[in-house]
Amino acid sequence: MTVTVRFAPSPTGHIHIGNSRTALFNWLFAQKAGGSFILRFDDTDLERSKAEYADAIAGDLAWLGIRPDRIERQSKRVEAYDKAAQILKAAGLLYPCYETPDELERRRSRARALGRPPVYDRAGLKQTAEEHARFEAEGRKPHWRFVLPNHDGDPFATRRTDVSWTDLCRGDQTVDLASLSDPVLIRADGTYLYTLPSIVDDIDMGVTHVIRGEDHVANTGVQIAIFQALGANVPVFAHHNLLTTRDGEGLSKRKGALSIGSLREAGLEPMSVASLAVLTGTSAAVEAMPDLESLSHKFDLAAVSRSAAKFDPEELTGLNARLVHDMPFEAVRERLANLGIAADETFWTVIRGNCAKVGDALTYWNIAHGSISAVIDAEDDDFVRAARAALPDGEVTPETWSVWTAVLKETTGRKGRKLFMPLRKAVTGLEHGPDMGDFLPLIGRQNILARLPG
């Protein structure tokens, strides 16, 4: 059996780091098994689905390193859903219901008031052809519900019916179909809800494993019943915990919370995002992995916690910095050039340990090659003037800083922070940065003298 998984976003907005968690789980699972990954756009909502969102989602996945083996669009497969619906109707498993949303809500309210669960009472199954004709004459259109197999022949005498599966994240799971309403599969306007198209696609595309968020657990029992009603093999399920903010707030595409596009534009590395998205909420330590192959070695669905996966967006900065600090020059050469930095390996080696993002290199390039505003405190003015006169002659080398500061320590009596900090601030304009012994040769004698008052 070839493992086949899918990621099925709705192109109604930009995906965020929480969505990327599901995509990455599927991708890594397929890669470890030598399987196939399908990007399947749930774009049957023609009013809200936009081609630009689909393009953006594909681009965001590519940035993360996810390259689908195939791309499908549900909007082009409506005939397949119509065929499946006809099969269910012919089997008496899909029935029309003419209640309005207000009527359904009133029934649910009555049930709750009587202390009963607000489960649909299958009133639509009792309606006659004459009643249907009357509703149609009133201008009503039916929505269609699937009859759950929670009875022994009489759908109005339900019994406990457990549907069980072994979840790759959550272990043994059971849903009682008698506790659920018959699901609506087709809206009154004739369009399909998510459930039936998803199942038909999984069947037709040979999906073997469905890896998705835990918010779908309750739906799984229903979906298993529909798989079986269509005579199909049921895939293996895995429901992972969802990413939330530190305050437990869920993420939303509509709010644009931590969208992948915004993280990319902020200069973050894809592997810092991928590492946080995958490892948060698991038993594995959250650390910056250099590539998806390395991340796959730490990835294990069984290691996913059942508790909420709360994460701190600020962790991205730390993870990103660790990745940047380890990057060889060849990995950033082109990116530095795009920033207008005509750097060599020496420059990158000196400054990368102070860069949280590759783009931070521009700050140090400008310090080394541009003009800066020297920062000289009043109490340090005489000291800095003396430092200018004491700068060793000749070419600035990695030894210049130690020789220079040794002379100043001897002549001025300053030491420690009072010795080093005024020089750093005057020469670089910063209180922190690369090792000054390594950085001074990049700045050069001319710039050093230009920044020190004579």
Structure commentary:
The protein is an alpha/beta fold and about 450 residues long. It folds into 4 domains: about 1-70 and about 195-325, HUPs (Rossmann fold), CATH 3.40.50.620; about 80-185, Glutamyl-tRNA Synthetase, domain 3, CATH 3.90.800.10; about 325-370; about 380-450, Arc Repressor Mutant, subunit A (Orthogonal Bundle). It is about 45% helix and about 10% strand. It has 19 helices and 12 strands. The protein has helices at about 15-35, 50-65, 80-90, 100-115, 125, 130-135, 195-205, 215-230, 260-265, 270-280, 290-300, 315-325, 330-340, 345-350, 360-370, 380-390, 400-410, 415-430, 435-450, and strands at about 5, 35-40, 70-75, 95, 145, 160-165, 170-175, 185, 210-215, 235-240, 245, 310. The strands form 5 sheets. It has a 3-stranded parallel sheet. Strand 6 and strand 7 (about 170-175) form a beta hairpin. Helix 1 (about 15-35) packs across helix 10 and helix 1 (about 15-35) crosses helix 11 (about 290-300). The termini are far apart. The model has no long low-confidence stretch (mean pLDDT about 95). One of its GO terms (molecular function) is zinc ion binding. Its main location: cytoplasm. Catalyzes the attachment of glutamate to tRNA(Glu) in a two-step reaction: glutamate is first activated by ATP to form Glu-AMP and then transferred to the acceptor end of tRNA(Glu). Its EC number is 6.1.1.17. Pfam families: Anticodon_2, tRNA-synt_1c.
